[in-house]
Design goal:
Elements: E1 2-8, H1 11-26, E2 30-36, E3 38-42, E4 47-50, H2 56-69, E5 75-82, H3 93-97, H4 102-117, E6 122-123, E7 126-127, H5 132-135, H6 150-159, H7 176-183, H8 189-200, H9 202-208, H10 210-220
Parallel strand pairs: 1-2, 1-5, 5-6, 5-7
Antiparallel strand pairs: 3-4
Helix pairs in contact: 1-8, 9-10
Length: 222
């Protein structure tokens, strides 16, 4: 039996893990839990505030704290962070920026992060280019939440014909989330993102998103 601790960038990723990955990985004898990355702490009230990758330094501190809290051999640790708007203090950031192939860029960042965290139990994962790439794997499922936006959903479906959703770029106006918002201004990542991804289902997500599939395969085989 393997216990897997997942550090998620935000609430959407956390909900996605809880609704899809926990059950799926349990079938492979990998028992996962998840929490959002720590962003700040109020020492007076002992409150923690989680959600949002504001800086790598803070994220690393939070991950290493969890590594120290659970030193057992059967434990593994991973992340679910977006490449889009990744903090510039991330290890390997400059080297990754020179890579024109997004998959090589991700590999550079994940390798650098693994080395920097420095624990063999740690398996970094960065989503190409952000969580909404998973939604663009099957944008027709947006009608579960946005039924009245039929034309907009058709436009997204047409845009994605023959496209690899992981290769939708990270431009300020052209990243996956920006494309969805352009068609559906009411789109809300927190309320709709995880639910739509759940409707798409793990099988289709893995079929369309190579790097995501590689991550899930790694976790299954722990």
């Amino acid at each position: 039996m393997i216990r897997l601790h997942i550090t998620a960038e935000g609430q959407t990723e956390r909900t996605f893990v809880e609704k899809i990955l926990v059950t799926h990985l349990g079938q492979h004898h990998v028992f996962a839990d998840v929490r959002c990355v720590l962003t700040s702490r109020d020492k007076k009230s002992a409150k923690e505030y989680r959600g949002g990758l504001l800086s790598y330094t803070k994220a690393k501190k939070d991950i290493q704290s969890w590594l120290k809290e659970d030193r057992h051999e059967e434990c593994r640790f991973t992340t679910m962070f977006d490449l889009y708007a990744l903090p510039e203090d991330f290890p390997g950031y400059a080297a990754a920026g020179k890579e024109t192939d997004p998959y090589k860029r991700i590999a550079t960042l994940e390798d650098a992060m693994k080395q920097d965290v420095g624990d063999r139990r740690f398996i970094p994962y960065i989503q190409l280019h952000e969580f909404e790439a998973l939604i663009l794997a099957a944008p027709q499922e947006l009608d579960w939440e946005y039924l009245e936006h039929e034309k907009a959903i058709e436009n997204l479906m047409r845009m994605m014909e023959g496209q690899n959703p992981e290769l939708i770029n990270e431009g300020a106006q052209t990243a996956p989330s920006k494309r969805i918002i352009r068609e559906i201004p009411a789109y809300d990542k927190v309320t709709a993102g995880a639910m739509v991804a759940t409707k798409i289902g793990l099988e289709r997500l893995r079929e369309k998103c190579r790097h995501f599939d590689e991550w899930i395969t790694t976790l299954e085989n722990l």
